[in-house]
Amino acid sequence: MVETGAGAGSIGLLILRFELAAIFWSHGWPKLNPKSAMKGPVGFSGYLQQMKVPAPLAAAWAVALLETLGSVLLVLGLLVRPIGLLLAIDMLLAIVLARKGAKFSSPEGIGWEFEFALLCQGLALLFLGSGPIAL
Fold first, then answer.
1. Contact assessment for residue 75 and residue 20, using Cβ atoms and an 8 Å cutoff
2. Nearest CA to 133 among 67, 87, 76?
3. Residue 12 and residue 38: Cα distance in Å, rounded?
4. Nearest 5°: phi and psi at 91?
5. What's the predicted TM-score (pTM) here?
6. What is the pLDDT of residue 6?
7. Helix, strand, coil % (nearest 5) of the chain?
8. Segments of the chain scoring below 70 in pLDDT
9. CB burial class (10 A; 0-12, 13-18, 19+) of residue 89?
10. Contact 30, 37 (CB under 8 A)
11. Interval 5-18: pLDDT, tens
């Protein structure tokens, strides 16, 4: 059994940071990479434009950079609180804009529970910070 002292909490925060970084990297890299199926920021901006997001190309660049560079910063343990807040806002906007009208959970897989979990994890990092295992 693992004790829940400071050492275990530090490892827990490290795991949380790595988990969030892996997920956001896997979703952010296609938004940044023009050779991906998403066609980078230009392709992603077309998706944002369909949702009536203002300044879709600028928003696409902001999200792509946040999700990729933010992932690197999370792994390193740098700027964890602001990155956690920005990722939470990113997921709130994804819920409001991309999952508008969807149920929380759906058998068809079109719910917003995944984005909600990521939003909560971002908020957890906002309040907890990086922990001592960080640069």
1. no
2. 76
3. 33
4. -75, -35
5. 0.91
6. 60
7. 70, 0, 30
8. 1-6
9. middle
10. yes
11. 568 889 999 999 99
